[in-house]
Write a structure and sequence with these properties.
The protein is of the alpha+beta class. The protein contains 14 helices and 44 strands. About 40% of the residues are buried.
């Protein structure tokens, strides 16, 4: 009787007409994503003059995303024609307070006079101009072209090459010829009187030989007295390859993809100072950095306790100059991402001074700091040129600090059990515009902080996410806002206390608006170790409740989903609406490792993924059983990417907790994932094999008991198909019967086609109904 009933459920769910309960939502429609919801505005920019707001948008009348503009005065929205894009001048903080400024469009350099908004073409060429750098002289601009720095002076209509970088191939190799050349210049005055020697202004700077190194960045000081450039070793890492099986020519094709963790070589970074007036170069020495040879604590488990034999490899970020232009703020991170340093270079005496050292035995990270060691974080100079600002997790949460570069006195600007997610210094330097989750971990509110008075001014603080762009004169706000069940829209408002916003885009479709979208409740429960954990709870109506539950596990690890704004998991939000219509209860947990809850929550998974992040799911299940009337043996689990990994760990490490699991694009063995993400959390397989063995599902394959379906795109270049194939072979060799692998031949990590999304979630729904619905 039991087998017959479950077979009936599977057959009827294929067309959604035989459920014990029904939903008005159609899976094929909601899986169309933004084609069903409506395409929301993206990439918000102010014009340089503050009269228009530009954004990318695919409105109903367009088949693809196009550049749009809003007239701030009339609120009229129009599409920017391709022919008019050259006239679009986006606002940049470097233009603040400028009477004139330069900008590029494609490969051309333009000069604009702010007062009359007159724009003139100055250089038209096919050479790309990168890293436009304004300086104190408003008639001068610097840019990088063909791996060298150039200076353009508008008054003189003069273009000058400032640097002359050369590779090892360019360097003269015949020593005898060099000697003879030098000898001729020594003996014969004839060579001193050549036209080249007479007109030094026409000469190129002396060559700077960087060998076979990579030129990472060049930055000129505002007073133009010196510049700094960063080089790094070119490393050849072993890439992986993935196979594309479906191609227009009928042949399979190998495609290169990222390296695996532990196979990425450290690249030696160097920062040098070049003084154009003297045509001289000097390399800075970073060997004095605090803790540069401190061995990570985890290595004591392998019997290693003494200091490292050589300095840690470091990454040096592009310097930031003070207004005067005689000092540079330099951010440095270690390759293992356990250390972060801030230093000041003083051009007057050539000294490099460490002013801030942050260390984390897990890994440096958090809002405004970044988990990625190639990003310097939110740092900058105050207007007085004597203080710098930065963010740190010193208190356990990412907060904003001020430091005097002379006395090293540190001032705490923000504090509390919340995080600063964005901070922008005002033009006058007296305030910071801050995005923070002060009111609730699941909000992103907008404030003005008058830091001298420690006075917070509420500007936008209702529930939701306010993604704010400030106009050039700081009088207006362009805001991309969303709520739990309300997708992102663009709003305008004045930059005043408790401002009121005016909605200017209406993106959602009639199909989307016809549905009554349920608003999940943000709840919290205590994990088994006492930690407070937040979650989204989707509750069905009492008359349809079936006492079964599904736990959804968000991906990315360091991501937040139990929040008050429109989720990046919008398909899952709509799918959960369908599930509660059918009587299921859904719990979506911000487990340990998630964003928005401070340092300890963020790093709780260090060296052991699949521990506290997994027990949070089990504790959430027990909360459902105790508080929501859910039957202990009627709970399923699913998720994608990191959520797929947790699903695998749940089904393999705790086989009796969940009746079924759906693992989408899941990591099965962390030793096969990428370096940047994995090495932060688990170090490297060669140095910390213990962490990888206890964190990878493939080591626990023998534990599988209940129903598991794995879903994976065959051309996934992120979590690669090989991962799930290797786990499948383990199941085969272990004789495990209760699993399936569903493969999608043309899909990568994020599916592109509605057909694939629909097929995947139809099979998930079938699995839940087959395993969780009553069988009596």
């Amino acid at each position: 009787m039991k087998v017959f009933f479950k077979l009936f459920i599977v057959l009827t769910t294929l067309n959604f007409s035989g459920f014990s309960q029904e939903s008005d939502l159609e899976l094929s429609k909601i899986m169309a994503g933004n084609d069903f919801i409506g395409h929301q505005p993206q990439n918000i920019y102010w014009s340089a003059y503050g009269d228009k707001v530009y954004f990318d948008w695919q409105s109903d009348s367009l088949k693809e995303e196009k550049l749009h503009q809003i007239d701030v005065n009339t609120k009229e929205i129009s599409n920017v024609a391709d022919a008019d894009k050259e006239k679009v001048v986006f606002y940049s903080p470097k233009l603040i307070g400028k009477n004139n400024f330069f900008y590029t469009y494609k490969e051309n350099l333009n000069f604009c006079q702010t007062k009359d908004r007159k724009s003139d073409l100055k250089i038209q060429s096919s050479a790309q101009k990168k890293s436009l750098q304004h300086v104190n002289d408003e008639q001068v601009v610097y840019f990088i072209q063909n791996e060298n720095l150039f200076k353009f002076n508008n008054e003189l209509a003069q273009l000058k090459q400032v640097t002359n970088f050369k590779t090892e191939e360019d360097k003269p190799s015949d020593k005898s010829e060099n000697f003879l050349t030098s000898q001729e210049k020594q003996f014969f005055k004839h060579f001193e009187s050549t036209p080249e020697q007479k007109d030094k202004s026409s000469q190129l700077p002396s060559p700077i030989y960087i060998g076979d190194r990579k030129l990472n960045s060049i930055a000129i000081s505002p007073n133009e007295s010196f510049l700094m450039f960063i080089t790094s070793e070119k490393v050849k890492n072993k890439n992986t390859e993935i196979m594309e099986y479906i191609n227009s020519d009928g042949y399979s094709k190998l495609k290169k993809a990222r390296p695996k963790v532990g196979t990425v070589s450290d690249s030696k970074f160097e920062l040098s100072v070049y003084i154009p007036e003297n045509d001289s170069v000097s390399k800075l020495d970073f060997s004095m950095l605090s803790g540069l040879r401190k061995r990570p604590v985890y290595q004591s488990e392998y019997g290693l306790t003494s200091d490292l034999e050589r300095d840690k490899a470091i990454i040096i970020h592009t310097p930031k100059f003070n207004n005067k232009g005689d000092k540079a703020l330099i951010s440095v991170k270690s390759f293992d991402n356990k250390d972060r340093w801030l230093l000041i270079y003083n051009q007057n005496d050539g000294k490099l001074t460490e002013i801030e050292h942050q260390h984390d035995e897990a890994w440096i990270g958090g809002p405004g700091i970044s988990n990625w060691n190639y990003y310097e974080g939110n740092i900058g100079w105050m207007n007085d040129d004597q203080h710098i600002y930065f963010q740190s997790e010193e208190s356990g949460y990412s907060h904003l600090y001020l430091k005097n570069i002379n006395t090293l006195e540190k001032k705490v600007l923000t504090k509390g059990a919340f995080e600063i997610h964005k901070a922008q210094l005002s033009k006058d330097g007296n305030s910071f515009y801050i995005t923070a989750n002060k009111t609730h971990p699941g909000n992103r509110s907008f404030y003005k902080l008058k830091w001298k008075e420690n006075k917070w001014i509420d500007i936008l603080t209702k529930d939701g996410y306010y993604d704010v762009s400030i106009s050039p004169d700081e009088s207006m706000l362009a805001v991309k806002y969303s709520y739990i069940n309300k997708p992102w829209e663009l709003y305008l408002g004045k930059n005043i206390e408790n401002t009121k916003l005016e909605q200017v885009t209406f993106s959602t479709t009639e199909k989307f608006e016809r549905n009554q979208w349920h608003t999940p409740e943000i709840i919290s429960f205590r994990a088994s170790d006492g930690t407070k954990v937040n979650a989204r709870l989707y509750k069905p109506k009492a008359e349809v409740k079936n006492n079964a539950a599904i736990i959804f596990v968000h991906g990315a690890g360091y991501l937040q989903n139990a929040h008050n704004w429109w989720s990046t998991y919008f398909r899952e939000f709509m799918f959960h609406n369908l599930l509660i219509d059918l009587g299921y209860t859904i719990l979506d947990i911000d487990y340990r490792g998630s964003k928005g809850y401070g340092r300890d929550h963020r790093t709780a998974i260090y060296r052991h993924m699949g521990d506290k992040d997994l027990t949070d799911q089990i504790d959430g299940k027990r909360w459902l059983v105790k508080n929501q009337g859910i039957k202990n043996d009627k709970v399923g689990i699913y998720g994608g990417s990191y959520g797929g990994f947790i699903t695998l760990m749940a089904m393999l490490k705790t086989p009796n907790e969940f009746q079924c699991g759906g693992a989408l694009r899941s990591v099965a063995d962390w030793a096969h994932y990428n370096h940047g993400y994995t090495s932060n959390i688990l170090n490297t397989p060669e140095e910390d094999s213990i962490a990888y063995q206890r964190s990878s599902p493939i080591y626990f394959a023998e534990g599988l008991e209940n129903r598991l379906i794995m879903f994976h795109g065959m051309v996934d270049d992120n979590v690669q198909y090989q991962d799930v194939v290797r786990l499948s072979q383990r199941f085969i060799e272990l004789g495990k019967p209760s699993w399936d692998l569903i493969s999608y031949p043309i899909e990568s990590h994020g599916f592109k086609t509605t057909n694939s999304w629909t097929d995947e979630y139809r099979r998930l729904l079938d699995m839940f109904n087959f395993n969780l619905l009553e069988d009596e």
